[in-house]
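Reviewers of the previous submission asked for a worked example of the structure-prediction workflow described in the proposal, so we include one complete record here. The input consisted solely of the amino acid sequence. No template or homolog information was supplied to the procedure at any stage.
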Amino acid sequence: MLANIFRDESDDGSWSVSQSVSPVGPAGTLRLVLGDQLSATLAGLRDIDPDMDIVLMAEVREEATYVRHHKQKIALVFAAMRAFAVSLEARGVTVRYVRIDDPDNTHTIAGELRRALAATSPRRVVITECGEWRLAQALSVFAAEATAPVEIREDDRFICSHARFRDWASGKRTLRMEFFYREMRRQTGLLMNGAEPEGGRWNYDAENRRKLAKGVRPPARLRIPPTAETLEAIADVARLFPEHFGELETFGWPTTSVEAGRVLDDFITNVLPGFGDWQDAMAEGEPWMWHSLISTSINLGLLDPLDVCRRAEAAYHAGKAPLNATEGFVRQILGWREYMRGIYWLKAPEYGLRNALEADRALPWFYWSGETDMVCVADVVEMTRTHAYAHHIQRLMVTGNLAMLLGVHPDAVDDWYMTVFADAYEWVEMPNTRGMATFADGGIVGSKPYAASGAYIQRMSNYCGPCRYDVRAHSGETACPFNRLYWGFLERHRGRLRDNVRLAMPYRTLDAFGPEKRDALLAEAEAARLALGADPLSAGETRSSPAASGYSDSSP
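From that input alone, the workflow returned the following structure tokens.
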């Protein structure tokens, strides 16, 4: 049985660390459950024999520090793992749980598997495939060397299997998400009317781009107060990872399937009806807007993605949510989430080396500190530090767009996104950063770079009003940095991007400027890059970590 996952409270009210007591002796099957596999229906648990089998769960430093994950993300994963282990024990399952502060912890997943093999002598090991190439390689090495047979099962919690995605991608010159999404709609029947899409259109994105009107405020959101067990995980992270980015005091993420279900219920009932209209809008000091706040729960395994989509569809059919909102929400999960995972595994590991625009600049330190006069950037960085969250337009068109315009090396961009967000896992984050945000993949994910001047941010937010930079000016130290960078970015990459049909209009404008003005735009952009701290990197340097950028967060 599960022993001492949580600390025991002593008679005087203080907390003392108890070490786990692991079952010893012959066993049936040793079953590994990773921190993002917290689903009762996990493939590796389906045929479990509670009388014979042992589940291994381990909190290890390698997974917490291969990038310096946000404190809230580490606390979320640890708290959710501990709660899931308790739920397994309630089903009569024996759990070998290794805490982060166990003195015998090897601090790698493969190391804990080897230690469990030696201690329990199972007849076989069952693993559900992991989500990241790095760990998959380590588990493959373990399987090859293990003293018991190892079975690695496909993670079928995703709607699209690896084989299905490869079949869809086979023979295609371009792999556009929109067409993959339509196939997933047909496969699942979501928002379909026979063979045709509900409402006669596949995509209602054009109706989902409203700027937040004056006087319109986002709805109040349900946040989950930490339980005593979650507070214990938070205390462990504060004690063991003090230098990691982010704050812990504002933690409010679900750590169980029941809590996640409450957040989903709140979204479907109170927020989804407005999601379509306002999903791209941004407002200073408003981190949540109309977004679902369930990405952490889906990625941990606390919610099933197909069930989430069907819940939204049911609200539409019941007349409780409009079609543009429901379709836009379903597209984010059934379309983008599944597509990004497919691209990651189709193209890994080479995808993580792509740098099509030959970006070679450092990530400015204000991405960690938030100390910049750009109101939009300062607000998004503050949200990430305080909540480990920003919504998709802030990630794409503020921090991502700026990094691309500056020419920040994609390794540094990957590292930042993996560090600051509680829902970040490499399989979903890397195709978003290298594909959508920076065009480092050269057009596999996006048909063009999502480059924009300050005009886009002005149109979709209230950031520009209080900003000291002038969004109408295009040059000089008081001009909006996005404007100073935009035309220089296009000119700098003319050889790669000029023939892209989706950029025909801005390049016609650029051509009309003439060579002298184009040279001036290049000089203006370079001055802005240096002023903002996007310094040239030396060979092999990325300066991606907060420590390397001169930022340290040692607050508890």
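The CA atoms of residues 100 and 265 lie 33 Å apart. We consider this example representative of the routine output the project will generate in years two and three.
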